[in-house]
Amino acid sequence: MKPDDKFSPTFHFPVQIYYEDTDFSGVVYHPNFLKYFERAREHVIGAERLAALWQQHGLGFAVYRSDMLCHEGVEFADVVDVRTRFYFESKYRTVWQQEIWRPKGTKPAVTAHIEMVCMNKARQLCPMTPPLIEELGRHFDQAISL
Amino acid sequence: MKPDDKFSPTFHFPVQIYYEDTDFSGVVYHPNFLKYFERAREHVIGAERLAALWQQHGLGFAVYRSDMLCHEGVEFADVVDVRTRFYFESKYRTVWQQEIWRPKGTKPAVTAHIEMVCMNKARQLCPMTPPLIEELGRHFDQAISL
Amino acid sequence: MKPDDKFSPTFHFPVQIYYEDTDFSGVVYHPNFLKYFERAREHVIGAERLAALWQQHGLGFAVYRSDMLCHEGVEFADVVDVRTRFYFESKYRTVWQQEIWRPKGTKPAVTAHIEMVCMNKARQLCPMTPPLIEELGRHFDQAISL
Amino acid sequence: MKPDDKFSPTFHFPVQIYYEDTDFSGVVYHPNFLKYFERAREHVIGAERLAALWQQHGLGFAVYRSDMLCHEGVEFADVVDVRTRFYFESKYRTVWQQEIWRPKGTKPAVTAHIEMVCMNKARQLCPMTPPLIEELGRHFDQAISL
């Protein structure tokens, strides 16, 4: 991924491919890529922080859009590198650019553009809390003003 | 399944095997059988009834034990017959005997003994409500006294 | 969906939402929508036909692109209507427009644009067989010439 | 787990619980425990070794029996410890005792007895290869003679 002022730095997250991830065609079943992207986002945000946000503030993130391109099959026993960067589009919405790289790959096997919105338990759009924006904003070189 | 005074009649529930169900070995990935057994139980109990029980009474069923034997592989595009019968062991617990039959099978491909307990949202053991026991008990020829 | 000369008629496929489909936020976990779309496509194409295509010709379909918008949460015990239509973009590629409608919904809860390509077991792009194109083409009013 | 001459030492494998693992009751959906047990076994055996065994010898492992007890719910954001030990029952069969421990748990949340058999691609019972038995046997203090 090329550096881009708008985006956070790139985070790397490894995912090992198990039996459960494949289908009879021999490669990863495509909806599972969305699972790996979500796991990687949860590591960027912090699973503990997500759990606290839900329990204390009744807030969570929902995927509003996922646009994914599958360029290459990913195989059993691969340990892939999930690369993730994001930016705040507004107080309500984050935009994520994510890629899956196979071991020794020269280009990404899967690429995705994903948009997440912040919602309360009644599934109404809500602004992210200022502490959350500040904490996630520490990933950025420049100050974020939303 | 042989008739048995203790058990309800046998319920039949079809499940089609899709890409998502298989793994690279070419057959159904074994934890998925537990999903089909659960779907079949939800049809016996009634999904609407389960949803109401959760929303109105804060009660749900949790699998306490699942003992499963996989005798034969199940393949993509199979439409299997999930056979289910159960009995009330107490006000807290139901016991289920479930089988998966492939098309044209002469014996079950998978067999399972499953125990479910009734719990509240704090995951404390709770008795099933009398109307629930009565409604599920209609499946039995004989009266149930718990 | 509006009629469109390019597209097949709209196919309807019901999917019941089970425990396995939801996550702790209370609604369907978003990657599962891609599973329902795939199940619906398998019913349009025919699971038996897909199995035969793989076993006899070594051909299968791979999702190249999936662009999905999640407008509304889908809940446990819902029986949703998956609406599907498609067209042949070339001998290699089909394009699918798919939607998920909740019971009594006035607009789709989820919409998707999905592209599938035909591949051999070595994951090389291959043209669909003429009989397959002819059989799938029966869904169209007008002749297809690829 | 208590030491036992028959068993290998206990292996520890961490699993983080993500959105995908839970259902609307708020805890892990029970069939997913079988996935974590399988991941842990794949780490004991070695995913690369499993991939090579399949590609070079046409051999794989199938779960013949899984008997699982769920004592306690496991929650989102938990990092559980999957504890695994096993022994060779014969050249064809391994027996696994596995447990899931929550952070700060004083007893296992889930326990399981799992039996795996070695099969070829036609799903016929086959003996494990001598090098495989030898390599896995290195986990044991005592020599294994099958």
From TrEMBL, chains A, B, C, D:
Keywords: Hydrolase. One of its GO terms (molecular function) is hydrolase activity. SUPFAM superfamilies: Thioesterase/thiol ester dehydrase-isomerase (SSF54637). PROSITE patterns: 4HBCOA_THIOESTERASE. Pfam families: 4HBT_2. CDD domains: 4HBT (cd00586). InterPro entries: HB-CoA_thioesterase_AS, HotDog_dom_sf, YbgC/YbaW. Belongs to the 4-hydroxybenzoyl-CoA thioesterase family. This is Thioesterase superfamily protein. It comes from Shewanella loihica (strain ATCC BAA-1088 / PV-4). The lineage of its organism: Bacteria, Pseudomonadati, Pseudomonadota, Gammaproteobacteria, Alteromonadales.
